[in-house]
Amino acid sequence: MLGTTILLAVRSILRHKLRSFLTTLGIIIGVAAVVTMVTLGKATTSAVQSQIAALGTNILQIRPGQGFGRGGGGPRPPDFEEADVEAIREQVAGVTAVAPQAQSAATAIYNGANWSTTINGTTNDYFRVQPWPLTSGRIFQPAEEQAGKAVCIIGNTVRQNLFRGGEAVGHRFRIGNVSCDVVGTLSTRGQAGFGGDQDDVVIMPIKTVQRRFTGSRDIRLMLVGVDAAYESSTVQASVTDLLRERRNISGGKDDDFNIFDTAQISATLTGTTTLLTGIVTAVAAISLVVGGIGIMNIMLVSVTERTREIGIRLAIGAVAREVLMQFLVEAIALSCLGGIVGLVIAQLAVLVLAPVMQVPYLFEPQINLIAFAIAALIGVVFGYFPARRAAALNPIDALRHE
């Protein structure tokens, strides 16, 4: 009986191809929109988390000034000193390492090739705070750091542009007016939404950069690694108190430095992205309801058009349950067809939009199955009333219908 019912439903759908397509259009748009929005939302969240992870997890970035600028219209806040680095390292519980940084920009030249890049002066603690594996070579030796030797570790972008992707360790190139020996090359990190190309960097001992490039012992940035066993907010509060004391900030005066907590930023951005994805998905889901109303409307029209056919079926022995099942199966078939087409369109849309948005392509089986199940459920919910109406027709009245 079920096979006959399905066959009749399919024949009815194929008999009115254009009407069937227009009926499923709302479901197609709804499913495609919901799946696309949710998938891209998850991909965006994944991209944000990857970018934050590239900056390092459980890290406090400390800069002079309020926010990322100087803040206000007053004088520029003083930079940090080496003594500040030592104080944080020794006096704050939960700190694993502190990496001071002094930055400059210069043009690197090697064998006729030149490349403008960023020079990052730091210590070996930099590689403890935010692990960055080397593809070859080594990190700095204690004697090189202490003496401020002209040695460097280069990022992949610099290696590609200066050494044409070849081996760089053991070679010497000129950066600014300094000849630098390459002792290591870094693994690829790629683009970061907060700082451009992370691989476009030359890392040198901080004393070298201070003496040969910046001309001062000032430290513009400190990276503080936080032990996973400690709450980053607690460590941040301790660092704040210590720096306020060392920088003679008393009473209700504002801090003249800012602390950027990567763990908190990651949680905030992820939560915001998830919330926005939920809102957009809810708006897109409205079209599913509209599609369900369209199915109910067309099925009511179909019942009216096929009243005489229903009367004949009832007159020759069909029971009301069989008539109800026929129209219900027809509604479910339309919804499922729309769901399948919508899922295909959604995957094509994600394939096209993911590279444009610079997010990874993700295939989410769970959301696809849920969207298809919702489409089928809509067919049941919105198809039941027309099917019930068809099953309740009086055979005599139905046969008299013109």
From TrEMBL:
Domain ABC3 transporter permease C-terminal: residue ranges: 283-395
Keyword match Signal: no
Species for this entry: Sphingomonas desiccabilis
Location relative to the cell: Cell membrane
Primary residence: membrane
Membrane topology: Multi-pass membrane protein
InterPro entries linked to this entry: ABC3_permease_C, MacB_PCD, Macrolide_Exporter_MacB
Record key words, sorted: Cell membrane, Membrane, Transmembrane, Transmembrane helix
Pfam family, one: FtsX
PANTHER family xrefs: ABC TRANSPORTER PERMEASE YTRF, MEMBRANE COMPONENT OF TRANSPORTER-RELATED
Family, per entry: Belongs to the ABC-4 integral membrane protein family.
Official protein name in the record: FtsX-like permease family protein
Gene Ontology MF term list: transmembrane transporter activity
Signal peptide bounds: none
Domain MacB-like periplasmic core span(s) in chain numbering: 20-241
One Gene Ontology cellular component annotation held by this UniProt entry: plasma membrane
Presence of the UniProt keyword Cell membrane in the record: yes
